[in-house]
Batch of 2 targets.
Target 1
Amino acid sequence: MTDAGFEDLRRAVERAGCFAPRPLRAVASFGLHVVGSAALFAASARASGAAAVALFVCASLLFYRIGWLMHDAAHGGVFRRPAWDRAFAALTAGTLGEFPSGWRYGHNRHHAAPNVRGRDLDQSERWDPARRYRTRAGAFVGVLLLSRFRGRYLPKTLLLLGLRDGYYCHVHHRKRFSAELAGVCAGLGAQLAWLAWCFGAWALPLLLAHTALGMLYLNTAFAGNHYDLESFDEDAAAAIPFADLQVRTTRNYAGGALARFVFGGLEHQIEHHLFPAMPRHGLRRAAPLVQAFCVARGLPYRTEPFARCIDAVLRFHLRPAGSAA
């Protein structure tokens, strides 16, 4: 069924230049993030005490901002040629230790059916009734720091996410599995080698800490966009127009320039869900048009501070008063 109002919006954002790619900027950004994070790791190894810890954390967070570049390329938003986007997605994903085809499989399921129980693969454990906690502190640890697998809690790291996406790649894109596995091994090997050069025998435990920081950053960045908003079963979702489903299950973060740096442009998550292939730098330009579309359609256009969103996520995971442990 054609949604004329949404098609009009699409044409409007295209005329506004929101889909124009900036490939040179993306390639330069990749190089700067790799070099900058490597320099910060080296500086951390030469510092001591709190300064060493702070530099290490900054290095990890800077490194994992490469995830935004992988995200753009996997959605086809960096180059005009799909083959170049696939190559850049493979480069950035391999650097991070990720399987691009496996990640794309799970992420596209999320975009096709956000907050649709049984179809949305993005942290579907949020609907597990066993993942309910007595306090916000308990919810913070249980939801943002730990994964629950077959009744057991495991620390969240990007290594576990890579295993999941490796499984998806092997099952759904088997022809690409060997090449992507080689990229993952090369990326993780390079990270470990650099940490060994900087920190010696501490390299392996610091790699685990590094991947845990990356997961905390990337997972928490998206948690406030969706987790506690309304959800649907498959039959109910099928009756909702595409644009309505995307907007009703998504919200943006407020915060200006700081938010743009931390979230890489994806603080405009509503715009991204309506137009996944739009480059991140086009989302802010599209926002006024999208907001007007939502107002005209009677849809909620939510923009809230990140801290308030995360607090709502933690409250979503609290046990109802008087419920059994």
Target 2
Amino acid sequence: MHKDSGGYYDAAMAMMLPFTANATSAVEVGCVKPAFVRHLSWVGRKVCVAPYFAAYKGLDLDAQDSSDDDDDVEYVEADFLTWRGQEYDDGIFDVAISLQVLEHVVDPGAFMKKLLGTARVVVVSVPYMWADCKTKCNHRHHMI
């Protein structure tokens, strides 16, 4: 996992393992580069959908080291709410992951509704009991 995660990504992985052990396809919505979904090594099809791709703090998008290898992740630059996704078989993935994204979107209800229709298993993480970061972290919603 990413060295600056403070255990967050390890906890997210541990929480989702029982629900994703048999997954063959996964989509991460609102991801950064390198995408978290790359850690699902047993999943054959891994897709990352975001309107733009940022890097983790301290990483250069163009200078990924071998520990951040994500050659098997397909990056799709698109707004998730307008992204169709039907090019992926029946349009339904085994698992959808959206970590720390919902608080940034304009319409979290519409986003969640689409997310729930995108995969058989949906894993969502939002800030819980965090201090309001005001405009510093670009949250559109607080205390989801």
